[in-house]
C-alpha cells in the first residue's frame, strides 16, 4: 500500500494485517511502540475535525515522529489559490513523508493520482465530502474485533446518503469478512442510489430498509446485534429538500432514546451502540443512551488511534 485514499487501495491481507497490528498496539504500553523519529507527518484539514486530526497527531507522537499541522485558513491554499499538488510537493521538499488530507472535494484524490508525487510520499484520505473515510472504517473494524468475538450482523442507521463513514465501512466489512450481514436503514431522504446499488451487488450480505414509521424501525432494531448510528449531516443538506424534520421527530422514528432502549432490552441483550461522532444529542440518540454501557463511541475513538498508528506504520514499512 502506497496511499490510503479509499478502501479499494487495500486487499484483504493488507486490511487484516493493519487490524491485527492495531490490536497488538492496543495491548502494548507506549514504550513498545516502534520509533519512527526519522519520519514526519502533516495534516491538511479543509473541513473541521476533532477526532481524526487529533488521533493522527497522537499516532505520530506515539511513534516519536515529527508532526506538522498546516493551518489551511492562513495558508497559501486559502487566499493565494495555491493548488493541493503544489502544496504537497512543498511539504515533501520540507521532509514530510505522510500527508493526511480532509477535504470537501470528492475528486481531489483521483486528480492527485495523476500528480507526479514522489514514491516515498504517502497520502491518507482523512475524509472527502460524502465519499470515503477509510481510516475511520479501519478503526471501526478494529472496534468490532475488540468488542466482539464474532460479529454476525450490523445495522447502519440514518443519513447514509451523505455518509463517507458508512461508505468506507461497508466496503471494509465486505473486504474483511465473508460472514457479517449488513442492514442499511433510515428515512428515504437518507438513502440514495449508492445504497440500493450495494444491496443489488451483494444481495446475500446487504439489505436496504427505508422506514417511514417507528414500528418499521423497531422491527429492524429487534434483529440488530450492533447498531451504528450515523450523524445527520445538516451541513450537507443545503441543496436537498430533506431538512424539514425536527430533531425530536427524527429521534422518535430513527434514533435511540430511553423508551426504545428499554423496550428492546438493549442492556440485557448487550446490544452494542456505535457512532463515529460528533453526535447530535437529541437526534440520533438521547442523553440516556450516550450514558449507557452499551454506547461504545469512545472505544471507537481509542481504536481509531491504534488503527491510524497501524496505517502509518504500514505505509512507512512499504518505504523501507
Ligand atoms: N469521526 C470523525 O471523523 O470525527 P471528526 O470529524 O471530529 O474528525
Short description:
The protein has helices at 12-27, 51-62, 76-80, 84-93, 108-112, 134-147, 164-176, 193-201, 214-222, 247-254, 258-263, 266-269, 287-290, 297-319, and strands at residues 40-45, 66-70, 98-103, 122-128, 153-157, 181-186, 206-210, 226-229, 272-274. The chain is α/β, with parallel strands linked by helices.
Describe the overall structure.
This protein is an alpha/beta fold and 320 residues long. It is built from 14 helices and 9 strands. Bound molecules: phosphoric acid mono(formamide)ester. Residues 49-52, 127, 136, 276-278 line the site of phosphoric acid mono(formamide)ester. The site of phosphoric acid mono(formamide)ester has 9 residues, from α2.
Keywords:
alpha/beta; Rossmann fold; binds phosphoric acid mono(formamide)ester
Amino acid at each position: 500500500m502506497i496511499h490510503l485514499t479509499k478502501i479499494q487501495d487495500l486487499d484483504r491481507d493488507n486490511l487484516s494485517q493493519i487490524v491485527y497490528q492495531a490490536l497488538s498496539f492496543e495491548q502494548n504500553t507506549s514504550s513498545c511502540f516502534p520509533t519512527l523519529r526519522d519520519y514526519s507527518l502533516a495534516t491538511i484539514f479543509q473541513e473541521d475535525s476533532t477526532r481524526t486530526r487529533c488521533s493522527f497527531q497522537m499516532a505520530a507522537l506515539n511513534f516519536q515522529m515529527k508532526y506538522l499541522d498546516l493551518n489551511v485558513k492562513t495558508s497559501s491554499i486559502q487566499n493565494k489559490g495555491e493548488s493541493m499538488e503544489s502544496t504537497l510537493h512543498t511539504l515533501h521538499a520540507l521532509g514530510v513523508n505522510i500527508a493526511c488530507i480532509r477535504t470537501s472535494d470528492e475528486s481531489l484524490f483521483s486528480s492527485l493520482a495523476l500528480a507526479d508525487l514522489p514514491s516515498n510520499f504517502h497520502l491518507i484520505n482523512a475524509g472527502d465530502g460524502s465519499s470515503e473515510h477509510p481510516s475511520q472504517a479501519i478503526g471501526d473494524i478494529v472496534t468490532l474485533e475488540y468488542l466482539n468475538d464474532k460479529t454476525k450482523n450490523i445495522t447502519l442507521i440514518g443519513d447514509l446518503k451523505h455518509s463517507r463513514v458508512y461508505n468506507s465501512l461497508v466496503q471494509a466489512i465486505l473486504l474483511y469478512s465473508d460472514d457479517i450481514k449488513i442492514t442499511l436503514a433510515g428515512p428515504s431522504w437518507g438513502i440514495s442510489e449508492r445504497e440500493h446499488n450495494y444491496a443489488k451487488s451483494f444481495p446475500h450480505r446487504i439489505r436496504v430498509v427505508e422506514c417511514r414509521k417507528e414500528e418499521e424501525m423497531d422491527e429492524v432494531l429487534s434483529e440488530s446485534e450492533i447498531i451504528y448510528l450515523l450523524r445527520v449531516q445538516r451541513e450537507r443538506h443545503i441543496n436537498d429538500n430533506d431538512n424539514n424534520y425536527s430533531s425530536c421527530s427524527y429521534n422518535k422514528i430513527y434514533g435511540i432514546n430511553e423508551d426504545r432502549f428499554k423496550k428492546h432490552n438493549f442492556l440485557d441483550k448487550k446490544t452494542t451502540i456505535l457512532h463515529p461522532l460528533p453526535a447530535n444529542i437529541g437526534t440520533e440518540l438521547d442523553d440516556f443512551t450516550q450514558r449507557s454501557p452499551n454506547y461504545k463511541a469512545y472505544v471507537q475513538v481509542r481504536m481509531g488511534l491504534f488503527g491510524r498508528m497501524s496505517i502509518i506504520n504500514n505505509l512507512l514499512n512499504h518505504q523501507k
